[in-house]
Amino acid sequence: xxxxxxxxxxxxxxxxxxxxxxxxRARAAAFCISAFEGGQLHKPNLIARPQDYDPxxxxxxxxxxxxxxxxxxxxxxxxxGSGSRR
Length: 86
Hints:
This protein is an all-alpha fold. It is built from five helices and no strands.
């Protein structure tokens, strides 16, 4: 994968390397957000037809479905970098 990045950077004339100091936290947040949103979106089908979901995905969607929406929204709005001052 790094080789592919190098090839694209060379093709675009990229000369700098960038380190994202919060990438690990951002990845963790994205994982939680996608579980919550997916669980909410698929709630009726998760209850009616759980066998239709990939066994590797199902537990994450169920956990997201069980998350409390009000708490999730409040915490995400007050997270560093969210632009909110709650």
